Amino acid sequence: MVMHSYSHDPTKYHKFLKVDGAQYDQVNRFLRKRTFITAREWAISRLCADFQTSSGAEMTYIGRNLPKLVPFMTDTYSPQAVNQARVSFKKKVSKAGATFLYGAMCGFYTPQELDDLLFEVSEVARFLLEIESTDIDIDAELEIEDRVTEIMRQVAEASARLLKERGMEREEKAVSGETLSDLGSQSFDA
Questions:
Q1: Residues whose CB is less than 8 angstroms from the CB of residue 15 and which lie 6 or more positions away in sequence, other chains included
Q2: What does the domain layout of the chain look like in residue ranges?
Q3: Which of 20, 52, 71, 133 has the fewest CB atoms within 10 Å, counting from its CB?
């Protein structure tokens, strides 16, 4: 687990200062236009990452000090509410990732379109990191972008091959008289 050396004095936490004076609703509208997350989920997830210990995030401390730690938050939260916001954030990231990967794998995007999309989403991510005053070394940032771009290019190319092969298989099955119901069905329980 990651150990951070943040002070237990909320006045020493220097994230989100770039939105000092902004109201929760303003930050929430900004995020909703660009992401699936709320201001609450963003702030609490950032705090959970920053106040992570070997036994987990300091939920009680985060909830009790939320208005002191994050300028646009006005209420304290119970440890359960902090955990719920963190879980909600993780679920939304997972769903957004699945949606993105599905789009890439189904051939909806060319490799160039994926590069363009990755550039756009990385700009939003960088901006959010800048707002919350999280520093990432430029070399590390570039390496991450290059790795993701290469992986997505490989996904697009492999998907194109797979879609082509499946199309050829369907044509062969159609010629031989098999139907889709003969090929079996897939359950969508989840």
A1: 46, 50, 69, 70, 132, 133, 134
A2: 1-93, 106-177
A3: 20
